[in-house]
């Protein structure tokens, strides 16, 4: 055993002096966790690429079919620029699945004891959530940019401002879903329970959001069901901004729904993370 | 008192039943003590530890840890304590398998608000003290069991806490790594005066390491004391003498001798229990000598903490708890999670 001398433990005053309170702590803690999570993600960049495979496949294997069918103008898909309809849908699909599956990573973290290790430190518990969500938003935004570039190669034409606003929608959706996914993962603590739960919730939400085809094609009951879910509003708003229409009721509705969703999701997830016992 | 807990209790409720994991624990720990919390799986060790470290809210009771009130100022407690979780069980020791050893140490320092420089300095010091030098660039998942456990401990010490809680620090380690860790834990106290509160279900660990042992079973503390004193108080020492003459005569001589009880003669051997072997033995020998009884051999056996536990609870420490009781605190923890 090494016989070097340990330094004396810090006296109580300096323990308190090290810490500042409130938002300063929250933001710096969030950045600490964000940087750590980002570093860990960059060590395994394969997941970022794997997450992109599904939407790229849709773009390549389904996009041309949709473009051909839409060329008749029958579907309510813009015949001259079908990809400005299709790519926003794929972006939301990317967000839906990319962000909602992050709950698995927190179960792995919990199992490794990482969650407990940080919960016993003075780090802000909300920062444990926020730092992770921020990392996911960054990952997803990068994936979304790649997807948009791929879309351009297939024939997407959209104004830059519209694309940027669309990416903001994706980021807000990612915040909502990642936060909820972490909270649910932390509560369930079991991959076997999380996987079926996610499928049960995400698949209907995706189908009802009108990612592939406009919901207006459906019967009234289906349109009503779609109106009860949030993502249809967001996709419609994204399609409008991709088409260069920024100031209308659809876009306002999309902004309201996405921000409202994010607030509700963050509030729920925050409660799960700040809970005294976990 | 660096730890002062009164009536600490925790009941886990599920739909079907409620489990009283800890039923009113009172304990005090003085600054600089190494205190062992000894008990079988499911006795309530980990649950108590999780309450004292702010990870679990007690259903009843209060405690002050490192000068801060557990319920009113949990963040104050967290700033001052170090915690090294159990490494074997549902959750592991706290390192991310795909993080680098050096990264883990630095982030740990940073969340305790050490500057980047201070964190690096502390990390370097702890890696050398805990024999992790040269491993800073390795992924945590590539470490051996002993190395990973030393890293877990380094993480718990990065901010020089005044009190450190170790949950089964050596479970799953080979004997060599174990005694090596014991040296490190002793060193902590010797050099820094750090208070160490550890749980264990190894008697030899409590015996080798602890100034004081608290024995817990079924969520209550059933005995407390210095390991030696505890052994003596509960079971006494066993003296076995082999006499050259017949043992019956020796038995007659010693019957009624002060402090001697449970006197048994078997052939040439005679066995007795005394409160303190060292104190009783000279007198016993003189008494026999005076009667002209000579001895071939003398054996003084001190009861192990295992015997102590057996006497206290009627169960061996190595037994599994009876069916129907939560077998480990991890299971209790899981039960709590069910909606």
Oligomer: heterodimer
Structural class of chain A: mainly alpha
Strand order of the biggest β-sheet of chain B = 6-7-8-3-9-10
Stretches with pLDDT under 50, minimum 5 residues of chain A: none
Give the SSE string of chain B. Answer: EEEHEEHEHHHEHEHEEHEHEEHEHH
Strand element count of chain B: 14
| Biggest beta-sheet profile of chain B | 6 strands, mixed
Outline of chain A, from the CA principal axes?
elongated
> Mind summarizing the main beta sheet of chain A?
none
As a whole number of angstroms, the C-alpha radius of gyration of chain B is 24 Å
Determine the number of helices of chain B (DSSP H or I, runs of at least 4 residues): 12
Helix count of chain A, per DSSP?
12
Low-confidence stretches of chain B: 320-339
Description of the molecule:
The complex is a heterodimer of chains A (278) and B (339). With 278 residues, chain A is mostly helical. Helices cover 75% and strands 0% of the residues of chain A. Chain A contains twelve helices and no strands. Chain A has helices spanning 12-17, 22-43, 46-70, 83-100, 103-111, 114-119, 125-154, 160-188, 191-208, 220-227, 231-242, 249-274. Chain A is elongated, with a radius of gyration of 22 Å. The two termini of chain A are 37 Å apart. With 339 residues, chain B is α/β, with parallel strands linked by helices. Helix content of chain B is 37%, strand content 27%. Chain B contains twelve helices and 14 strands. In chain B, the strands form three sheets. Chain B has a six-stranded mixed beta sheet, with helices on both faces. In chain B, strands 2-1-4-5 form a four-stranded antiparallel beta sheet, with helices on one face. The longest helix of chain B is centred in the middle third of the chain and has 18 residues, at 175-192. Chain B is elongated, with a radius of gyration of 24 Å. Chains A and B meet through α1, α2, α5 and α6 of A and α2, α3, α4, α6 and α12 of B.
């Amino acid at each position: 055993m090494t016989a070097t001398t340990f330094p004396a433990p810090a006296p109580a005053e300096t323990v308190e002096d090290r810490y500042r309170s409130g938002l300063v702590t929250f933001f710096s803690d969030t950045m600490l966790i964000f940087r750590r999570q980002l570093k860990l993600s960059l060590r395994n960049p394969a997941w970022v690429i794997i997450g992109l495979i599904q939407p790229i496949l849709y773009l390549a294997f389904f996009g041309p079919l949709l473009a051909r069918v839409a060329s008749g103008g029958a579907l309510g898909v813009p015949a001259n620029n079908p990809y400005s309809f299709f790519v926003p849908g794929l972006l939301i699909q990317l967000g839906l699945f990319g962000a909602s599956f992050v709950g698995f990573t927190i179960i792995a973290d919990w199992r490794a004891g990482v969650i407990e290790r940080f919960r016993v430190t003075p780090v802000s518990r909300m920062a444990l959530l926020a730092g992770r969500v921020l990392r996911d938003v960054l990952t997803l935004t990068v994936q979304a940019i790649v997807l948009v570039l791929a879309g351009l190669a297939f024939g997407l034409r959209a104004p830059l401002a519209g694309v940027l606003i669309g990416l903001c929608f994706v980021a807000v959706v990612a915040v909502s879903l990642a936060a909820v996914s972490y909270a649910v993962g932390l509560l369930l603590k079991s991959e076997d329970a999380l996987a079926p739960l996610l499928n049960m919730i995400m698949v209907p939400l995706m189908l009802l959001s009108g990612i592939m085809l406009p919901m207006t094609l459906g019967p009234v009951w289906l349109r009503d069901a779609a109106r009860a879910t949030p993502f249809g509003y967001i996709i419609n708003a994204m399609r409008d901004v991709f088409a260069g229409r920024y100031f209308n009721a659809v876009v306002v509705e999309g902004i309201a729904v996405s921000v409202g969703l994010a607030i509700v999701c963050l509030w729920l997830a925050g409660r799960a993370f700040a809970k005294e016992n976990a | 008192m660096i730890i002062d807990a009164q009536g600490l209790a925790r009941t886990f409720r599920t739909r079907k039943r409620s489990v009283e994991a800890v039923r009113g624990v009172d304990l005090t720990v003085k600054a600089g003590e190494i205190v062992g919390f000894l008990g079988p799986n499911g006795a309530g060790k980990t649950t108590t530890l999780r309450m004292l470290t702010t990870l679990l809210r007690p259903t009843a009771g209060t405690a002050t840890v490192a000068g801060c009130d557990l319920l009113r100022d949990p963040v104050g407690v967290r700033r001052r304590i170090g915690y090294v979780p159990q490494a074997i069980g549902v959750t592991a020791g706290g390192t991310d398998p795909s993080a680098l050893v050096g990264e883990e140490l630095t982030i740990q320092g940073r969340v305790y608000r050490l500057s980047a420089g201070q964190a690096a300095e502390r990390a370097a010091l702890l890696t050398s003290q805990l024999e992790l030098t040269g491993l800073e660039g390795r992924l945590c998942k590539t470490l051996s069991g002993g190395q990973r456990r030393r890293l877990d401990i380094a993480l718990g010490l990065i901010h020089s806490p005044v009190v450190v809680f170790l949950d089964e620090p050596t479970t799953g380690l080979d004997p060599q790594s174990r005694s090596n860790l014991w040296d490190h834990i002793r060193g902590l106290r010797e050099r820094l005066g750090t208070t160490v509160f550890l749980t264990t279900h190894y008697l030899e660990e409590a015996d080798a390491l602890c100034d004081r042992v608290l024995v817990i079973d079924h969520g209550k503390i059933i005995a407390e004391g210095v390991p030696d004193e505890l052994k003596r108080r509960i079971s006494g020492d066993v003296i076995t003498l082999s006499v050259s003459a017949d043992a019956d005569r020796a038995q007659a001589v010693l019957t009624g001798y002060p402090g001697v009880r449970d006197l048994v003669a078997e052939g040439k051997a005679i066995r007795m229990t005394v409160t303190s072997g060292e104190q009783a033995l000279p007198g016993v020998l003189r008494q026999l000598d005076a009667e002209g009884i000579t001895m071939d051999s003398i054996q003084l056996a001190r009861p192990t903490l295992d015997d102590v536990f057996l006497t206290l609870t009627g169960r061996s420490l190595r037994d599994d708890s009876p069916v129907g009781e939560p077998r480990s605190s991890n299971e209790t923890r899981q039960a709590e999670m069910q909606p």
